[in-house]
Amino acid sequence: WASDVRIGDCTIVTGSGAGQKFAVWSINIETSKGGHIHLLKRYSEFDELRNKLVQSYPDHITEIPKLPPKKAFGNLKNDFLVKRRKGLEFFISCVLLNPVLSNSDIVKRF
């Protein structure tokens, strides 16, 4: 159902905890019928998606790429975010362009 996926820039958001900041990623999906879907997701939501897919589709584990690594400090620096964006885009593209994975309820709820 997806024909193209792009992750744009992220927005740095301040959470409710003291000094808690995180990136929210803009995901743009073009559907095979010419429609567009726009999502905003945190890294943790990509991580949760991957974990659910690995558990539910063990026969397709080689088709589910690993996510870019986590980093405790410096995870909001521009060079790190550029690399993370590329890794997240590769991951979500592989998932959404895979006919088995993309039609799962797990992905549709994402």
Automatic annotation (TrEMBL):
Topology with respect to the bilayer: Peripheral membrane protein
Function of the molecule: Recruits the lipid transfer protein VPS13 to endosomal and vacuolar membranes.
Domain of life: Eukaryota
Family: Belongs to the YPT35 family.
Lineage, broadest ranks: Eukaryota, Fungi, Dikarya, Ascomycota, Saccharomycotina
Name under which the protein is recorded: Endosomal/vacuolar adapter protein YPT35
Gene3D superfamilies: Phox-like domain
PANTHER family: SORTING NEXIN-8
GO MF entries: phosphatidylinositol-3-phosphate binding
Keywords, sorted A to Z: Endosome, Membrane, Vacuole
GO cellular-component term (any): early endosome membrane
Domain PX: 1-110
Annotated source species: Wickerhamomyces anomalus (strain ATCC 58044 / CBS 1984 / NCYC 433 / NRRL Y-366-8)
GO biological process: early endosome to Golgi transport; intracellular protein transport
Signal peptide feature range: none
Protein's cellular compartments: Endosome membrane; Membrane; Vacuole membrane
